[in-house]
From TrEMBL:
InterPro entries: INPP4
PANTHER family the record matches: AGAP000124-PA, INOSITOL POLYPHOSPHATE 4-PHOSPHATASE TYPE II
UniProt keyword list: Hydrolase, Lipid metabolism
Name this polypeptide is given: INP4B phosphatase
Keyword Acyltransferase: no
CC terms in the record's Gene Ontology section: cytoplasm
Region (Disordered): 320-349
Biased segments, Basic and acidic residues type: 330-349
Length: 756
């Protein structure tokens, strides 16, 4: 470029005899002929180009910002030249996704607080408990609102630097999130694209790690909550999750049913048979889902528990559970297999009619049946004039059939009102009972449960932001790959995280946070929709533990998708995490500390990976994926990964290489993470890139180390360091690097003292 930053005026080709430090013993393989040793690096500062060429798409450029591009030329084993374009870009999603999530948290928490207030009159003990819970929840709600307001003021860069990881106002934002891309053009091989998402490990840095991370904190909290006698009823995590699901279904289905009922009446007023049939079909489907949601023992038990919490209720035995040590085995109601532990803590009262609830929600089904019968009669009479009026009538016990000679609207209106009234009674009772369950959950763990919820929200926000970025980029690159698209809607998407955290001191807490955050991504579903405007940013809906991400594509790209995806099929994610600490702190953990955390995480995620592979082999044809029948078959790679995890070898980076290879062969999304995605991550992604060039694109074996040093010295990752700490130095020193595996050490002159 010109000196004033104007247009590009040319390129500079640098021929190097020596690039970086040679590994010991390699000099014998390098000839003295400088022509054979030529490696060319063309530095390219083309920020205005964006993700150029076929990647230059409005929908992709909507989420990618400030690209850094480098061009390389390396020799192949047959003395040809390969060209490599290395790119790095930050993403607008770094702030968009967390803001969307926090906004959903605020709405969800406000709705929950209102549901607690709507419980009605409670006995003094329960009422005081409710007031305490609402007060704590209001404080948490205020904090979320303040955080959202602060994020709304943010302008400038679309990424959070490593130096800002401890800032409270930015704690929901992922650290140093970037796309790292390598585009390879080989003389005799097909062009190839390789993507890795680099991001700091999802962790609550502002909260700190004095007491560990989420994995340890959640386990400890649940054990204390289960084993300590509280002045409330204990519901298991599964039951509280079920209560949240029931409430969510109510809030989702009730307005839908009401809307479809109104459409039914509108069709009736227009006397449109086809429209009436369609409206009835939709109304029936949603009402059946609504009724099914309440066929659960938890709802019945919670209604009984709420009854005993009303003022003036005289109990045969106290509602407060005894300590678990005194209780012995859980007691279950003889008529129903209980889903609630310590069922004897929920009293039974002779005046409470347990069958009343069955009658209430059964009335919804009966009302729907009356409506269906009436519509059938109206349509039949409309089409066949000589049908007897009494045929196919519902029984008089179920509904009162009106004379069918009059207006359709007039005859359907009272039945619709009855359906809505019955549904309203069910909603009121079910909402109160499930809100009472959530009251127990919150009251039994104040304030720790809210603190843990905050921490989990922070970690999940960081993890989800990276996942959304990875999914969108993978979708764009795979739009013309029919095998990938079939795999996406048939099996789901594999998302593989490579962790480089140690299991020593604070990084162990980070790893515990990261493990839970990535595991929580299993509950996220994706849906691809056609964009209706020029705004291609994703839309997030749902609640905690059940989010749907709607990814928008332009019409021309949307048409390339299989019919199943176009019709809105939800796409599953299969996140897996494999961690191998590589720094000097991991040396301390291996010799004097404990590596059990890493071993357990790797073993657990190996099982998840095997589960995904099993689904893949069951649901996909064997010739679907281009890599499936390669010499290094997936089954052998999985077995090798299993053996390496079982071996418990120190700093066994073979685990990461195998996991990454399996992920690529299964069309997955790759992530690489360390504390800040700056130094160790840079060593890992550059090693991965050069390994791919060697193994897949015939990079000359004598130039592997030179290419590796070249990328680390002059490539995109040193630019990432500069973006984060305003210095072109990886934050390593000589003593630290002595503990690093051989191929994870940067070349001389590229490391030294730097703030991180």
């Amino acid at each position: 470029r010109t000196s004033d930053g104007g247009k590009t005026v040319g390129t500079i080709e640098v021929n190097l005899v020596k690039m970086g430090e040679l590994e010991e013993g390699e000099t014998d393989h390098i000839t003295a002929d400088t022509q054979d040793q030529k490696c060319a690096l063309v530095r390219e500062c083309t920020a205005t180009e964006g993700m150029s060429g076929k990647d230059n798409l409005p929908s992709l450029n909507a989420v990618l910002r400030n690209p850094v591009c480098k061009l390389y030329r390396f020799p192949t084993s047959d003395n040809k030249w390969m060209r490599i374009r290395e790119q790095m870009a930050e993403t607008t999603l770094s702030f968009h996704v967390p803001k969307e999530l926090i906004n959903l948290h605020i709405k969800e928490d406000m709705r929950r607080n209102q549901e607690l207030k709507d419980l009605g009159e409670l006995a003094p003990h329960w009422d005081n408990m409710r007031k305490s819970v609402i007060a704590h929840c209001d404080q948490m709600l205020s904090m979320y609102q303040d955080t959202l307001a602060e994020l709304g003021k943010h302008t400038g860069s679309s990424f959070k630097s490593s130096c800002s990881k401890g800032e409270k106002t930015l704690e929901f934002i992922p650290i140093n999130l970037h796309l790292q891309r390598m585009h390879v053009h080989s003389p005799r091989l097909k062009d190839a694209l390789y993507d890795v998402i680099t991001v700091g490990a999802p962790a609550a840095h502002f909260q700190g790690f004095k007491n560990g991370g989420l994995r340890k904190l959640l386990s400890k909290f649940e054990a204390e909550r289960r084993n300590t006698g509280y002045q409330c009823i204990y519901y298991s995590p599964e039951n509280t999750a079920k209560a949240k699901e029931v409430l969510s279904n109510i809030n989702h289905l009730q307005p839908l049913i009401s809307s479809h009922a109104d459409l039914l009446l509108s069709s009736a007023s227009q006397r449109s048979p086809d429209s009436l049939k369609n409206s009835l079909k939709m109304l029936s489907e949603k009402t059946e889902l609504f009724v099914h949601a309440f066929k659960d023992q938890l709802v019945r038990s919670a209604l009984l528990a709420l009854y005993t919490a009303r003022p003036g209720c005289v109990l045969k035995k106290p509602a407060v559970p005894r300590n678990s040590a005194e209780e012995g085995d859980d007691v279950q109601h003889p008529d129903h297999p209980s889903q609630i532990k310590r069922q004897d803590s929920i009293p039974h009262h002779s005046e409470y009619d347990e069958e009343e609830w069955d009658r209430v929600w059964a009335n919804v089904a009966k009302s729907l049946n009356c409506l269906i019968a009436m519509v059938d009669r109206l349509l039949e009479k409309d089409s066949i004039s000589d049908v007897k009026e009494g045929e196919n009538e519902p029984s008089a016990a179920d509904c009162k059939v009106l004379h069918t000679g009059g207006d359709w609207y007039e005859q359907l209106y009272p039945l619709v009102i009855t359906l809505k009234d019955c549904m309203g009674e069910v909603v009121t009772r079910a909402k109160q009972s499930m809100a009472f369950v959530l009251l127990q959950e919150l009251a039994c763990g104040l304030p720790q449960c809210l603190t843990l919820t905050l921490r989990r929200d922070i970690v999940f926000s960081q993890a989800l932001t990276g996942l959304v970025c990875g999914f969108i980029i993978k979708l764009h690159t795979g739009l013309h790959d029919q095998g990938f698209l079939q795999q996406l809607h048939t099996v789901g998407l594999l998302v593989q995280y490579e962790g480089l955290l140690s299991t020593y001191s604070e990084e162990a807490g980070m790893l515990e946070d990261m493990a839970v955050g990535i595991s929580d991504l299993q509950k996220v579903m994706f849906k691809v929709i056609e964009a209706k405007s020029e705004d291609f940013l994703p839309i997030i809906t749902g609640r905690r533990e059940h989010y749907i991400i709607e990814v928008q594509l332009p019409g021309t790209m949307f048409e390339l998708l299989p019919q199943e995806i176009k019709e809105g099929k939800l796409l599953r994610m299969y996140p897996v995490l494999f961690n191998v600490g590589i720094n000097e702190q991991q040396t301390l953990a291996e010799r004097f500390g404990d590596t059990t955390l890493q071993e357990n995480i790797n073993q657990e995620n190996l099982e998840l990976l095997k589960e995904y592979y099993k689904l893949f082999t069951e649901k996909m044809p064997p010739d679907c994926l281009p890599h499936f029948q390669e010499q290094n078959d997936l089954k052998g790679l999985l077995e090798s990964l299993h053996q390496n995890i079982q071996a418990k070898k120190r700093k066994n980076v073979e685990i990461m290489w195998l996991a990454a290879t399996i992920c690529r062969k299964l069309n997955g999304v790759r992530f690489t993470c360390c504390k800040s995605a700056k130094d160790r991550t840079s060593m890992s992604v550059t090693l991965e890139q050069c390994s791919i060039l060697r193994d897949e694109h015939q990079l000359h074996k004598d130039f592997f180390i030179r290419a590796l040093d070249c990328m680390r010295r002059e490539g995109c990752r040193i630019e990432n360091v500069l973006k984060n700490v305003k210095c072109r130095k990886y934050a390593f020193n000589m003593i630290q690097l002595m503990a690093f595996p051989k191929y994870y050490r940067p070349p001389e002159g590229t490391y030294g003292k730097a703030d991180t």
